[in-house]
Amino acid sequence: MSESTSVTTEPKIRVSGLVKSFGENEVLKGIDVDIVGGEVVCVIGPSGSGKSTFLRCLNKLEDITGGTVIVDGFDLTDKKVDIDKVRQHIGMVFQHFNLFPHMTALENVMLAPVQTKKATKEEARATALKLLAQVGLGEKANAKPASLSGGQKQRVAIARALAMSPDIMLFDEATSALDPEMVGEVLQVLRDLAAEGMTMVVVTHEMGFAREVSDRVIFMADGYIVEEGTPAELFGNPQHERTQDFLRKVL
Ligand code: ADP
Ligand code: MG
C-alpha cells in the first residue's frame, strides 16, 4: 500500500457510482468523487442528506450496495480485500469521542497500535506522548477522560486516530457536540493536519472552517452531490438553487 502513495497521479480515494441503501431507503444515489493525496475536502449539506453514510462507506463501516470505492488502490467492494489492513490507513473521528473512561489519555492513544501489534508498548507510548503534545495535551497524558473538557477529549480522540499513522483522516462533525468555546481548539488541530498535507474528508457545519481550509467543498442533498467546487466557487457563486437555499440558511 505504501508504494502507491508516493506518486499522486492516481487518486487516493476513487468513488464511482456509489449507492447505499438501508432496506428500501436509498440513501446514496450514485456518488462520484476522486480525492487526491493531500487534498482537504469538506462535505456540507442538510441533515439526513447522506454525509455520514458517505463517510462510513469510505472505510466500509457500511456495506456498499452498488458502485465502487477504491482507497489507496484497494477496491473495498472486493470481498478479498483485507479491510482491517485498509482501515489501518484511515483514521476516523466522530462527533462523540468514545474514549475508554477507565484509561488515561495516554492509554487511550496507545491502545490500537499495541493491540494490532503495530508497535511495542514502548514505541506506542513514545508516539502517543508526541501526538498528545501535537494536539496541545502534553500535560494531560495521565488524565482520565472524565477530568477533561469536551474539546480536550476530542483532541485525545484525534491523537488516538493519528496513532495508527493513517494517511487519510475522516472527520464526521467532530465539533458538533462541543460547547462553542471549544470548537476553535479542535479546528486548530484539523488546520495543522491539513497544513502538514494530510488527506482529509471533513463533514462539518463550520462554514468558516470549510471556506478557509478546504481545497474543495462538496454540497450534498438527498443522497446526491448537488454541487462541488473550490470554497470561492461554492460559497461565493453557488450554481444550484438547492445550494443557494442551504447557504442562505447557514451563513
Ligand atoms: P447526514 O449525515 O447527512 O445527516 P446520514 O448519512 O446520517 O445523513 O443519513 C442519511 C439517511 O440514511 C437518513 O435518512 C438516515 O435515517 C438513514 N440512515 C443512516 N444510517 C442508517 C442505518 N444504520 N439504518 C437505517 N437508516 C439509516
Ligand atoms: Mg451525519
TrEMBL record:
SUPFAM superfamilies: P-loop containing nucleoside triphosphate hydrolases. Signal peptide: none annotated. It holds the Pfam family ABC_tran. It catalyses: a polar amino acid(out) + ATP + H2O = a polar amino acid(in) + ADP + phosphate + H(+). CDD domains: ABC_HisP_GlnQ. Its EC number is 7.4.2.1. GO terms for molecular function: ATP binding; ATP hydrolysis activity; ATPase-coupled polar amino acid-transporter activity. The keyword Cell division does not apply. PANTHER family: AMINO ACID IMPORT ATP-BINDING PROTEIN, ARGININE TRANSPORT ATP-BINDING PROTEIN ARTM. This is ABC-type polar-amino-acid transporter.
